[in-house]
Design brief:
By secondary structure, the protein is α+β, with helices and mostly antiparallel strands. It has eleven helices and 18 strands. The relative contact order is 0.16. Pfam families: MreB_Mbl.
Length: 339
């Protein structure tokens, strides 16, 4: 492999890498483990994630990204460098790299992402806003004068945008997404069961019995944690109906952001939405009952895109195929090339 273009979904929860030749070639948690005293890199990705919450003082396992942006620049740089090396060992020429970012990212945050990729070995870096990458990954034709609305619920951020003629018409980005779902579950279990659970257990509950379906079929799930009164381990059971009640608060905030975007959209494009529906992408969009709830609240059909979790990475990797077809002005509005 002499040369390659790489698309990276640099997410708060996971990093997904796509190349045209290999498809999705890497999908690992956004976690880095280092020696607390020397700063030596010990593990990245899946291996580092196994250490979260289980490390002695000499080892620190952390997530370098928070709410969709870089929280620890040095560790993020090491993580990107590790993953790029892992997928491009046989590449002779440094790759062009496209990285997706939340649509509300600042210039300072953008620069940090670009510098991390350049130091990690990229020849040229493009940043693309998540809704654009998600739309391309979902197979939506952006060339047409048709309004398409994308709702991308990731780990740290939710991005919603209306797209038409290769550009973003209206958009919103909020720091309420999959990780927030986990946080409200942790708080509910602590407040109602006096049991402390970790993020991994909360995520298991979310996947197992988490739902926002308007018509709910109740179920139970067992979980383990530490009793806050006795300090001892404890097993308890939680109902789907209870978890649904807790999850509704952050999900309604997301739907309010979608409503706000629709209200700012030209009426002709709103008519297109009724025809095309709302496309849901991202890991958070896989929450049980999400498309049905979106339809119930917003009165617009909604559907989960195929490979919804990988949509953004796929779109980011395919971005290079679209750069020649789009007008220069539009490219500059969604891509930021850095030499």
């Amino acid at each position: 492999m002499s040369n390659v273009d790489i698309g990276i979904d640099l997410g708060t929860s996971s990093v997904i890498i796509y190349t045209k030749e290999q498809g999705v070639c890497l999908k690992e948690p956004s976690v880095v483990a280092v020696n607390s005293y020397t700063g030596e890199l010990l593990a990245v990705g899946t291996e580092a994630a196994k250490m979260l919450g289980k490390t002695p003082d000499k080892i620190k396992a952390v997530c370098p990204l928070e709410d969709g942006v870089i929280a620890d620049y040095e560790l993020c740089e090491k993580m990107v460098k590790y993953f790029l090396k892992k997928v491009s060992e046989n590449i002779v020429i440094k790759p062009r790299v496209a990285i997706c970012v939340p649509s509300g990212i600042t210039d300072v945050e953008s620069r940090a992402v670009v510098e991390a990729a350049v130091v990690a070995g990229a020849r040229k870096v493009f940043l693309v806003e998540e809704p654009v990458a998600a739309a391309i990954g979902a197979g939506i034709d952006l060339n047409k004068a048709k309004g398409n609305i994308i709702l991308d619920i990731g780990g740290g951020t939710t991005d919603v945008a209306v797209l038409s003629l290769n550009g973003i018409v209206t958009k919103a980005s909020l720091k309420i997404a999959g990780n927030k779902f986990d946080d409200v579950i942790i708080k509910y279990i602590r407040d109602n069961y006096n049991v402390l659970i970790g993020r991994h257990t909360a995520e298991s509950i979310k996947i197992g019995v988490g739902s926002v379906a308007p018509r709910l079929v109740d179920a139970e799930m067992e979980f383990k944690g530490r009793n806050l009164l006795s300090g001892l381990p404890q097993k308890r059971k939680v109902k789907r109906s209870d978890i649904r009640e807790v999850l509704m608060e952050p999900v309604i905030q997301i739907l309010q952001a979608v409503r706000s975007v629709i209200e700012r959209t030209p009426p002709e494009l709103v008519g297109d939405m009724l025809e095309n529906g709302i496309v849901l992408t991202g890991g958070g969009a896989k929450l049980d009952g999400m498309p049905e709830l979106v339809h119930k609240v917003l009165k617009i059909d909604a559907y989960l895109a195929p490979y919804s979790e990988e949509c953004v990475a796929i779109g980011t990797g395919k971005l290079f195929d679209f750069t020649d077809d789009m007008s220069d002005g539009i490219i500059e509005s969604i891509l930021y090339p850095h030499h």
